[in-house]
Amino acid sequence: MDRTELAAPPFVREHRVSTAARRLRIAWQTRTVSEPALGRLLGLFVLLVAAAAQAGLGHGPATQTFLLVFSSIVIEALPFILLGALASAAIAVYLPERTLGSIARLPLGLQIPTAALGGVAFPVCECGSVPVARRLIARGVHPAAGITFMLASPVMNPIVLTSTWVAYGGHTRGAEMVVGRATLGLIAATTAGWAIGRTRAPDLLRARASDHGDEHSHDDDHAGRGVAFAGHLVADFLFMGKFIVLGAALSAFVQAALPESFVSTLGGAPVLSSLALMAVAYLLSLCSEADAFIAASFTSFTLGAQLAFLVFGPIADIKLSVLYGATFRRWFVPRLLLVTVPVIVVGSLIFEAMIR
Amino acid sequence: MSVDARIVRGAVLGAWAFFFLVLWVTDGTSRYLGSRTQWVVPFGAVVLTLAVLAYVFGFLRSRGRAAALTLREAVSLFALLVPLAAIVLAPHAALGSFAASRKGGGSFFLSMRPAPPASPADVSFLDIREAEGGKDFADEAGIHTGLRVRLLGFVTGSKYVPPGTFELARFYIACCVADAMPVGVPIDGRALHRGSFKRDSWLQVTGALEQRGKRLVVVADHIAPVPEPSHPYLSFRT
């Protein structure tokens, strides 16, 4: 080893490490891929898949469970991402500047409740609402209103409320759970919007290359707008899609590795049971259109705790956290948890006291 | 020479469009999704195909404005192909006893009341479990001791069954496999079979219901090993 390197003082070594890390990061972001390099990457990918298949990786019960849960979450979520990307592209290309301008000029006190109720008109689950909210904020809607819309629409949409009613209807608790879910969801979304969205769009959103329209034609003619629409659609879909893949992998790992019964012992304690089911909702990353069927099965937990599961899941889970991390600044997820967790816990306790 | 990123983006998008088309045409959707969300597959197939076509059209219109593919984007585009690789690795897989042990057991069981079966011949795993929990439902559905039932499911190896029985189960899904819940019924097959059945083996069991403690047990008079059905999961009947 080089003697001079050994003798270098700590701050020189740190400087060298940080310089190397910076160079690596710049290379990672800017280095272009040549045709032979892409061929090698593709070859490596195919070789790895073939080797894994040859080794029988997909045959063990644990890996099979992981692969099935992982692929099913992606298969279900990607079309919803697509739906969100369609709406996002339509906002980017077809919604006139003056329409968004008039929404943006509304007082914040009016924008937030309007955005919260806007979820009723946009029946997609949480994966689809992220790109739409991002586009709305990028085009001038107040960040607080954008966040409120994003968090409220997966709870307020009619399909989710209907599935909640169906899942609890047999126990004659359907009406209470639907009203509880819609009310607490609305409160949590508007509180989070107020508390963490009162900032400027550039301070909230992570910058993305596609925001600058680097590849889209913005010609005024019909074909030009169609091409721009497809460009935005593809950019949003591919951008969000890779984070859904990562989030689904994490969630599938948790499902394959941890037995659900590990939280059953916490069912009795009021605050703890709400927190436990919120943790389960975070780990499972279920679609808000299906989670009521799972919530209803947690019979050792109070209805208040089940409500906490139903409200918290569409606001924050593993796959959403990854998606939020890619869409918003680093501080967004911790602040979101800091605001919504106490609101939902308190709300679930009040709900429990009211229906008892 | 660097690669035009638009070609690789189009190819990844095309791969997903093709996959959704294959899933739609081959009726493979039920291995991943429940009946209420299966519409996403034709939706994905059609919209993604249209998006690919529009993207290719846009690419042809503006060929001169190439966007170089960066290392970061290349890796992230490959990441989007990983789920397709996962499907290739386990093409005909279905959740089994391992998943049942993770997702169910102990105090976790399904408590959603199904619509009663049209006739006793249609009695399902969910109906029997619901009848264990409520006499009203059992009366309404005509589920009682002595009723003959026919169940098709897999062996779980669960310990939460009365002595002398084994558990036969099916997974019920609402939206996708991630929300699958196992619903099992104890089977007493001692009159027909000595020893235990292999976990994950699929059986067609016919027999009569018998109350043992809190559980309804099927006392089997016919057990036949069968291949795994093409639709391994059941959906909620509500």
How many H/I helices of chain B?
7
Distance between the termini of chain A: 72 Å
Structural class estimated from helices and strands of chain B: alpha/beta
**N to C succession of SSEs of chain A:** HHHHHHHHHHHHHHHHH
Looking at the overall shape, the CATH architecture of the largest domain in chain B is: Beta Barrel
* Low-confidence spans of chain B: 105-111
The structural domain count of chain B equals 2
The greatest inter-chain interface is formed by: A-B, 88 and 85 residues
Which CATH class of the largest domain in chain B? Mainly Beta
Tally of individual domains of chain A = 1
Strand content of chain B: 15-25%
What percent of residues of chain A are in strands?
A: under 5%
Helix content of chain B: 25-40%
Broad shape of chain A: globular
- Amino-to-carboxy terminus distance of chain B: 59 Å
Short description:
The complex is a heterodimer of chains A (356) and B (238). Chain A has 356 residues and is mainly alpha-helical. Chain A is built from 17 helices and no strands.
